[in-house]
Write the structure tokens for this entry.
Amino acid sequence: MNNSILNRINIPVLIVVLTLLITGTGISQTGVGTAVVDNSHRSISSADTVFEYVESFYIGPAAKWDISGVLVLYSKSVWIAPSATITGNGKLVIASPGSNPLYTSMAGSTIIDGNNGQHILLDIQHKNPENILLSDVADPGYGTINPSAEKAAALNIGGDFSFESDGADVLLNGYDFLFGENATLSNYSSQRMVVTGNTVNGHLIKQNSIPAAFTFPVGIAEGDYTPASITGSSEYHVSVTDYSFINSLVTAPEEGMNRAWHIYGGTAASLTLQHNTLSNGLSYVDADAFITQHQSSGVWSNIPSADYVSSGVHSNTTTIPSAIPPTSTPSSWFSKSNDVASPLPIGLLTFNAEKQGRTVELKWITVTEHNNNLFEIERSEDGKTWDNIGKKASLSGGSDGHQQLNYNFFDLKPVIGYNYYRLKQVDYDGKYSYSPVRSVLFNELVIYPVPTKDFLHISGLSGKEIIRIRDLTGREIKSMSNTSSTITTNINLNDLSDGIYYIDIFSDNTIVLSQKIMVTK
């Protein structure tokens, strides 16, 4: 095996490295500040494995690499000049800086600035579980012309890029990640994916001059896996967001699934979209859903087809892929809906009911309102008979438009047992509609036995209470926190003398029960 620091054709590079290694306090232990600037013609034979340990690695504009063996990069920062060429039938391994055998404290992401340069015609294995982060790194002094916007740190792949470790994602960070005509992407999954962020600044791109299938393993965040698969012969750009990013177009309706793919590049033969069903809207029915495309001004296509393949997976081979636009336009947005009459309708984004001590807080969000006067809050003990317990006026002021409005309401006197809640949305013309139903369970707090000898049992707890025992003078004798989800807890009273005490139970800093108890030995 060769050590890459010594495997140099140009001697000035060797001098720079040795200088960095022997100067600076603690560099030899931490690696901070170590760097290689390689502007050489470099060859690695098939029998060799070469390692690079320095913190920053710069590949200069005259660099011409032919790698038939293996090059392992432990570096935290990699800068590639636009004109540098990296080719070969070997492989480049992006290793975890945290596993660097020389500098063990260099853990973190591998930052790569590809400068939208030459396609890397070499297989790449991504083995850093702390991710690759595309980022614009400063030129080390060559004076190269830096591309702008999404191309400023774009990385262009010409061989196979393989995800080799769970958690080893690629974070676009607003930059493009492009795969050329013969490039491939392998070993992707929900734990090995391309994170676009909740934005369309930066896309995963595939170039196809002849019809071919390619899966874009994208998601807005790590683990939020929403891949798109396209079969066609164009240069396809894919990113993904949630509805909040385009609330003026989609408005996060209850019959959608809160994900929208931004796709352009030209027509295709097929389009398959997969989403995590945890993002399904309140009224979304996956088995009835179809892929829908934004047309203009919040209007979406409503041509239903049998797109359902399996849970969260829908595929279309007709009108949808044939309408992928060649450039980024309002019609570049694709999502899913099961509402044929009005795909992705304006309406309620979320509605939740949460226990807050001995009260219930209702929260709901709308993103577009038309002619909305008010919300009536209704409660039921059996889900059949409903009582009006309050009202909330519309925050839209009677105007129509696209904006996110946040509401809340407290039920100060929920009943013991199940409390069912729904919203009755009432228009100015008297027309109304109901929200989905939410429920909250209140268990009755019971303290027993009284009097007691050694143990006291409390049932009906939620897991957020503080329990305190005080004597007749008010002095606190015992205190404990109930942090488990168990609804019953036991308190040992063997250390208390005979007498009368008070037990207080607090939830969210509010006393919910105070009761006198008697201890008799």
